Amino acid sequence: NAKAAGRNRFAIFGPHMDDLVQDRRELEGDLRLAVRNRRDLEVYFQPVYAAPNGALYGAEALLRWKHPARGLISPEVFIPIAEECGVITQLGDLVLEEACLAAQRWPDLEIAINASPLELRNEAYALRVIAAVNKHKIDPARLEIEITEGTLLDSAGECQRNIEALRSVGVRIALDDFGTGFSGFGRLQYVAVDRIKIDKSFVDGFDSQEAGNRAIVEAMIRLARAKGLKTTAEGVETEEQRAILKELGCDHLQGYLLSKPMTKDAFDRMVGTNVIDLQAKR
Ligand code: C2E
Ligand code: MG
Ligand code: MG
Ligand code: MG
């Protein structure tokens, strides 16, 4: 009967669920340790290029967790865990610090970091960012904070206050993964941002069946221009995508076609500033 079947199902799935919960607890514990000891966490940088001439323009800081036993764990997996177990602020601070150091090392580049909605909901967020910028004596306009549409939906208004405080000192705000959330175009009326980052899912469709994507991206770029916003296309993987985006007037390009995220040292080698380091070590 149904009851027996139910019990049976429990017998089959029960241990499996326990494993998942156990697994998750273990990861949480490991992440706490990694954050506390500043261990196994490394900030990578993905170059961003100017679309018209291909010149190096900046870099996005992307966090990596190299788990000692499980290997590389994606931020798509560990950022939500960090948010749930309350270490996202420490992670954000770590990335902010590395981003400021990067801005010092690469004086001609703009550095972008990703901020979780939870971070922006904290009333002290803008103050922490501004303190870091001041401490490292970098031009605030060279730091960009990437937020998601979810952040803009915050009803308490704390996120908006942080955004306004940051922009008032010159820090830039970018709307990440643009087009994938629920707010989209409408929300741009209420919150002032400096840039939209067109999500990879729209760029993907260019060279496939989804001809509609090109029209959507065209509309996004036109809207951004009308509002005086910069545009970055993420996830550019083919020459064809690059050519179309350039033609549509997209400002900046980011993607595996141009470069994958890399370590700070690899980035140094690429831009050639490692000379300074070598001199310091002698
Ligand atoms: P995102 O901010 O949209 O970052 C872009 C993601 O696309 C990165 O994945 C990047 O490596 C990947 N990507 C770039 N170009 C290409 C391409 O041509 N093809 C493909 N397939 N992928 C490309 P990543 O580094 O795994 O990060 C995933 C997400 O995790 C980020 O998405 C961001 O939302 C979040 N994240 C990463 N670092 C941080 C961080 O320090 N703090 C917070 N709060 N979130 C972070
Ligand atoms: Mg981003
Ligand atoms: Mg993105
Ligand atoms: Mg994304």
Give a structural overview.
This protein is α/β, with parallel strands linked by helices. The protein has helices at 2-36, 75-84, 88-105, 117-120, 125-135, 149-152, 158-168, 200-204, 212-226, 239-248, 264-271, 274-281; strands spanning 41-50, 56-67, 71-73, 110-114, 143-147, 172-178, 195-198, 230-233, 252-253. The chain has an 8-stranded mixed beta barrel with strand order 1-2-4-5-6-7-8-9, surrounded by 4 helices. Helix 3 runs parallel beside helix 5 (125-135). The N and C termini lie far apart (79 Å). Bound molecules: ligand C2E and magnesium ion (MG) (3 copies). Residues 24-275 form the EAL domain. This is Diguanylate cyclase/phosphodiesterase.
The ordered string of helix (H) and strand (E) elements is HEEEHHEHHEHHEEHHEHEHH
Shape: globular
DSSP summary, beta strand count: 9
| Beta-strand fraction estimate | 15-25%
Radius of gyration: 21 Å
The order of strands across the largest sheet is 1-2-4-5-6-7-8-9
Calculate the mean pLDDT score and round it. 89
Bound ligand species:
ligand C2E, magnesium ion
Helix content: 40-55%
Low-pLDDT segments, ≥5 res: 1-6, 274-282
Structural class: alpha/beta
Terminal CA distance reads: 79 Å
